[in-house]
What we know:
By secondary structure, the protein is α/β, with parallel strands linked by helices. It has helices at 3-29, 54-66, 86-94, 109-119, 139-149, 221-229, 261-284, and strands at 44-50, 73-79, 99-102, 124-128, 132-134, 153-157, 160-161, 164-168, 175-178, 181-182, 186-190, 204-208, 213-217, 233-236, 245-247.
Amino acid sequence: MSLSDRLRAARLIGQYHAEVAAKRAAAAVARRPPRRARGGAPSVTVLVTNCDNRGPLELTLRTALAHTAYPRFEVVVADNDSTDGSADLVRALGASHPVRLHGGGARAQHLWYDHALATVESDYWVGLHEDLLFLAPDWLDDLVAFMEARPDVDLLAGDAFPPAPGYVEPVRQQVVDLEASLSTWVFCVRTSLRDRIGTSFEYHSRWDAERGRTVLYDQGGKLMADMRAAGLGVATMPAAWGRKWHHLANLTWALRTEMPPPVRAYKHHQLRDVERRLRPLRRSAPLAAPSPPS
């Protein structure tokens, strides 16, 4: 890399560590007892999708489990035929935690979300990416308490991205008008939503002759638009909740695409940092031998 590329990579790495440190410090100051739902805790299914991303997946699962004392939840890892030991990791965690593997086939992430929308029987389900670092307790209590207090809300997203006219789509480098969409690294869905709307988390596009370009809905964008058109409630989380976790910036797919050299160096640093953060977690809670496939 050139000197300017190395300097840019160093800035990205420094910003990443500074942001994680600031979130950790802010979350430590804001700790409080969990807000339990009245009348007992609703049941929750936490869905984590994964494909050959064992290290970030392990960090997501270990830190998410360590930072919740919620009494009625199960983690389901929807694994897309990984060959890197991800399935064995999930089975080993399942020996001592409410974690189980849903494997045996490959689906795009939005299809796993659609499958959850159609089949989950718990009161709520939560979608997580497999590249999250959880930093503070009670993140799951927060989601459920929010939904219990607002029965008009069917989907709670971490963020909603505003429309972006003239957006350059990164795969085909096509200029499109990007409609509002959901962030899907942490979100919560009321299971009964499926009884009120037939829609999908699928990416969606349409040609707009008046604008002379494609209008693109990112993952969850068309679902959000359909829900709002039907008068169903979509909400975004309080911004302060974001300090309870850090999204490791698309480690799920970024290194499989072309990117500038400093960004690639930054992503490789994040992968090394994942392993660094995992070492003390593995020492304090070694995994049991994985259960054999059923």
